[in-house]
Design a protein that fits this description.
Bound molecules: alpha-D-ribofuranose, calcium ion
Order of helices and strands: EHEHEHHEHEHHEHEHHEEHEEEH
Distance between the termini: 21 Å
Shape: globular
Number of domains: 1
Strand content: 15-25%
Number of strands: 12
Number of helices: 12
Largest sheet: 9 strands, mixed
Helix content: 25-40%
CATH topology: Inosine-uridine Nucleoside N-ribohydrolase, Chain A
Radius of gyration: 18 Å
Length: 305
């Protein structure tokens, strides 16, 4: 089977870590590059965390360090959800590799140009690096197959009342991406809030494999849900879409990103009823087969070492 080449742009991040695990060990995907961005924690920490994950799994996927702050706004973090380190709870060994010697947006560009086929960008953090790539190298668009993102919401937010974290941290970057004309799949809170791992499944992780043992340790420090009530797998949902799209109901919608609102900046305005008369610019995931997702996670994590 031909593997789908992907680049993962990420801010690990506990739910990022499990998404990276599922992608690395999926027989359907080939991870060509991991680029980091400031988001859940600083880019220094997200980069260190990505490198430690590569060492944990003895993988040689290149890691490129990305933007230290959003395009225009001060950096924000989600250490209250992921811990001060961004991946609290497990004693990761120091990484055996360093980040490559070029910024993420340039590393992504070079990876796109070196590929024999267009690459899917999987974005599971704020979109700063992607906006920088598109602004600096607009000619690279034909080399991007599509963007599959964890981000946004057609309804309530999780950083502000209306805005989801990955979009709200850098609304200007997100607006640039949604206005790019690229094929975009938006896996927002409409589906990721339902993409739960149950307490019963979580309890099986320590006995699954090394990856399960590590994930159980960091999940114990993850605050999007709880070990007792279940954990929301926001970023893992984007990987699920890539390999099991049949688990989702999507709708082509016009999506606008609010950048001016005093209380609403970062809101993804998803025009489900086509009231704005604007052409659709994204496939928006509105429903997920939760049982099917949970079954897939069980299979996906069993493939990890
Ligand atoms: O809103 C959830 C998103 O914000 C996830 O990507 C999580 O890792 C945080 O970055
Ligand atoms: Ca993330």
């Amino acid at each position: 089977m031909n593997r789908l080449p992907v680049i993962i742009d990420t801010d690990p991040g506990i739910d990022d870590a499990v998404a990276i695990a599922a992608a690395l060990f999926s027989p359907q995907l080939e991870v060509k590059l991991i680029s980091t961005v400031s988001g859940n924690v600083s880019v220094e920490k997200t980069t260190r965390n990505a490198l430690q994950l590569m060492t944990f799994w003895q993988q040689s996927v290149p890691v490129a360090r990305g933007a230290a702050a959003p395009l225009l706004r001060p950096a924000r973090d989600a250490s209250n959800v992921h811990g001060e380190s961004g991946m609290a709870g497990y004693p990761f060994a120091s990484s055996e590799q360093c980040a490559i010697d070029k910024p993420a947006f340039l590393a992504i560009y070079d990876c796109l140009l070196a590929s024999e086929e267009p690459i899917t960008l999987v974005t599971i953090g704020p979109l700063t690096n992607i906006a920088m790539l598109l602004a600096q190298y607009p000619e690279c668009k034909p080399r991007i197959k599509r963007i599959v993102m964890m981000g946004g919401s057609s309804g309530r937010g999780n950083l502000t009342p209306n805005a989801e974290f990955n979009i709200a941290v850098d609304p200007e970057a997100a607006a640039h991406v949604f206005n790019s004309g690229l094929d975009i799949v938006m896996c927002g809170l409409d589906v990721t809030n339902h993409a739960m791992l149950t307490p019963e499944y979580l309890a099986t992780l320590p006995g699954l494999n090394r990856t399960g043992e590590m994930l159980h340790a960091i999940f114990s420090h993850y605050r999007s849900g709880s070990m007792e009530t279940g954990l929301r797998m926001h970023d893992l949902t984007a990987i699920a879409f890539l390999v099991k799209p049949e688990l989702f109901r999507t709708q082509a919608c016009f999506v606008a990103v609010e950048t001016q609102g005093e209380y609403t900046s970062g809101t993804t305005v998803v025009d489900i009823e086509q009231r704005l008369g604007r052409p659709a610019n994204a496939q928006v995931a509105l429903e997920i087969d939760v049982i099917g997702f949970q079954q897939w996670v069980t299979e996906a994590l069993a493939l990890a070492p």
